[in-house]
Amino acid sequence: MAKARGPQVGEVAPDFELPSQGGETVRLSDFRGKQTVVLYFYPKDNTSGCTAEACSFRDSYEVFTEAGAQVIGVSSDSVESHDGFAQRYKLPFLLLADAGGEVRKAYDVPATFGILPGRVTYVIDREGVVRHVFSSQANIGKHVSGALTVVQSLATA
């Protein structure tokens, strides 16, 4: 049996539609032709590693937006959980509720120890093509720094 695999560098990222922390519907295709998207999957709102990662994206948010990128976080937490998480840590970017885990499955985000949802960051260019994939549960800082390097190189290209 072939193992499922998420989109790789050079492939078109799967489109999706999910509710944000504000309740509006967000589609990946809404950004096509307009902005690079930094799509990061994380395990759970208000946990130490996920809070550190979200705050790291928050602290670099201005640099991402200046380079023409939109940051989007995805977890299986509810819209209400995302709303509280975003307010508590003053997160200026979108958090999407993937309640059934369908988008996580479409991107083949692995589970750690088979139970903890994985942590994977994608950089998707304006044409919807994956330009960077980084997967690490522990190396949280590299998710932000790696994505930023790619976003800045796309902005100057």
How do you describe this structure in short?
The chain is of the alpha/beta class. It is built from five helices and nine strands; from the N terminus they run βββααβαβαββββα.
Straight-line N-to-C gap: 40 Å
Q: Which regions contain 5 or more consecutive residues with pLDDT less than 50?
A: none
General form = globular
Q: Characterize the main sheet.
A: 5 strands, mixed
Provide the succession of SSEs. EEEHHEHEHEEEEH
Strand content: 15-25%
Count of DSSP E strands? 9
Q: Tell me, rounded to a whole number, the average pLDDT.
A: 90
**Number of helical stretches of at least 4 residues:** 5
Structural class by helix and strand composition: alpha/beta
- Rounded to the nearest angstrom, the radius of gyration is 14 Å
Approximate helicity band: 25-40%
